[in-house]
């Protein structure tokens, strides 16, 4: 099963990745949220952000590529003004100018080509509205992609090469400066890009492994089974030796100017 065919599993992701939900909510709070209006959540996962925004008073349209995630988000938000649908962000469809807030966290780095998703999200922002975008691997292109290259080197070791043929390391770099230019070309005013502090388990290796199994190495975990933690440990050791542990998480906030009265 390839990464593009991998089906994200909602329960292990929800159980192990609270830190990513907290980072998303922190970014949204920092951007300033309206008390009502429409909110789009692209790559909604198991629905924690959608739920929080609906409880705040927003009407939410959420989407995710994973059927498991969509089902979990629908169950979580069943009594709230939240609509959840299955969408592939590579072919993302959002109504232009329909949303006071458009949000996507920890999704963009899974897309080989991000221009369509970025432009579609930008166009969906209403006058006076805000786009909040967080993802990994947002470093300048000239800095290279040591994290991905190191992980691929580990996956190519004899112990793992044949077993990971159908679960390659797939992780894409979308420099924040290039994404910002795309947003500006769609008429948004882009704030300075902010780095997002990484979380390496706060010294808790078991917690870190669980988070990596559920997200970064979810496809590999499906084929490696009980050997997944050994693979993760090799990856962490190799990344530390290469000085490549930094995932280069970034947060981009962009706003569409309000309509001017004549």
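Sequence proposed for the structure above (262 residues):
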């Amino acid at each position: 099963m390839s990464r593009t065919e991998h089906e994200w599993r909602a329960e292990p992701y929800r159980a192990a990745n609270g830190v990513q939900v907290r980072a998303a909510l922190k970014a949204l709070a920092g951007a300033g949220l309206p008390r009502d209006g429409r909110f789009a959540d692209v790559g909604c996962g198991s629905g924690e952000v959608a739920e929080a925004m609906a409880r705040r008073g927003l009407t939410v349209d959420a989407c995710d590529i994973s059927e498991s995630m969509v089902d979990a988000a629908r169950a979580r938000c069943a009594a709230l003004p939240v609509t959840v649908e299955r969408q592939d962000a590579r072919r993302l469809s959002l109504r232009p100018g329909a949303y006071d807030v458009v949000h996507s966290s920890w999704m963009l780095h899974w897309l080989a080509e991000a221009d369509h998703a970025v432009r579609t999200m930008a166009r969906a922002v209403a006058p006076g509205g805000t786009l909040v975008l967080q993802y990994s691997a947002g470093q300048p292109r000239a800095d290279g992609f040591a994290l991905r290259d190191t992980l691929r080197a580990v996956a190519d070791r004899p112990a793992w090469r044949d077993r990971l043929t159908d679960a390659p390391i797939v992780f894409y770099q979308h420099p924040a400066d290039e994404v910002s230019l795309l947003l500006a070309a769609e008429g948004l005013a882009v704030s300075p890009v902010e780095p997002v502090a990484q979380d390496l388990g706060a010294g808790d290796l078991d917690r870190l492994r669980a988070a990596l199994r559920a997200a970064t190495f979810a496809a590999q975990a499906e084929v490696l089974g009980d050997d997944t933690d050994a693979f993760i440990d090799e990856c962490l050791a190799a990344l530390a030796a290469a000085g490549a542990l930094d995932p280069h998480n970034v947060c981009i906030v962009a706003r569409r100017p309000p309509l001017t009265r004549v």
